[in-house]
Every structure is written in C-alpha cells, then in structure tokens.
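Q: Here's a chain of 184 amino acids. Please give me its 3D structure as tokens.
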Amino acid sequence: MEYFIDTEFIEKPGSIELISIGIVSNDGRELYAVSKDFNLQDAWADEWIRENVLKPIYHDFNRDKSRVFTLPSMWSVIREYGKSNKEIAAEIIDFIPSNTNPVFYGYYSAYDWVLFCWLFGRMIDLPKRFPMYCNDLKQIMLGMGVTKKDEGYPVQENEHNALADAHWNKKLYEFILSEYEKQL
C-alpha cells in the first residue's frame, strides 16, 4: 500500500525538528499529528515558520476564537494538542497495518524522510517492514519530463499544512501515473 507523507519543521544548521506530520494512504485514511517536542521559541523566532506553519496550526486547534495568536497562546495549543514524537511513532505503527509492506512517497522529501525515520530512532530502528527510503515525487517528475505546466497538474491548497500537503502528494502521484499511462 502507498503512503504519502509530508512534514513541517524548523531547521537550523545541524538540526531539523518536527513540527507536524501528515500521512495519507492510497485507500484514503489519514493521520495528522503536531509534535510537542520541537523548540517553540526557535520556531516562533522564525517569521516564516511563525506565519506559514504555526499560525495555521493555531487556528486549526484554537477553540477560543477570542484568543489572539501569541507565543503564550501557541504554547497552550501545543500543550493541549501536541504529542511526543514517541506517541506519533506509535500512532504511525497503528496506522500502517502490520500485514503490509508500505511504500512511501513525498515531494522534495529528503527532510521529510529524515524526520519520519527519526521518530523511530535511527534508520535501522524503523519497523522491519518499512523501507529505508522514500520515493521522491519531484525526482519521478523530472525523470518522466512531467512539469507544473502540464494540463491537469494538481493545484496545491492550504500549503504548509502537513496533512493538506500529504493529500496533495497523493493527487500528484495520481497525476504522474496518468501521465505515464499516456506515454504507453
């Protein structure tokens, strides 16, 4: 079974920290989790991360619409809805049936895959049935000559939401398959 992944993260030289992860299976099931193990101070200090990643997460989970988006109110959302990376890893194991050999896809997925693997520890700590690689949709597109200008290329909405981007990855995969079939 195919799984389409995306992550949002904060990066600094020498480190990448998971903020959120989205996974969509080819049968339509989905998993979305926000980590509570990243350094919120560092993420907040990065204006792009604050506006494009944290603010949408805040608005998705903030039930009290009178609260303003501030660092203390973001802390509240993370404390209430965030999960430890170990909890997220356990949810992924439950999400992917044990009788399957999953195939993973991502778009520009190098960091996504590193973060995914780190949820389990080292790469050799991945569940035995998981591959040690992720298929990169951008590389597949380049190999096939597929571009964003091709008719029918899927529109990406709600960009930088890990779950929305994982759904878009699935749409892109389906588009690539349809382009491949045209070439046969």
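Q: Can you summarize the key feature?
A: The helical segments are 40-45, 47-61, 71-81, 85-95, 110-118, 137-144, 162-183.
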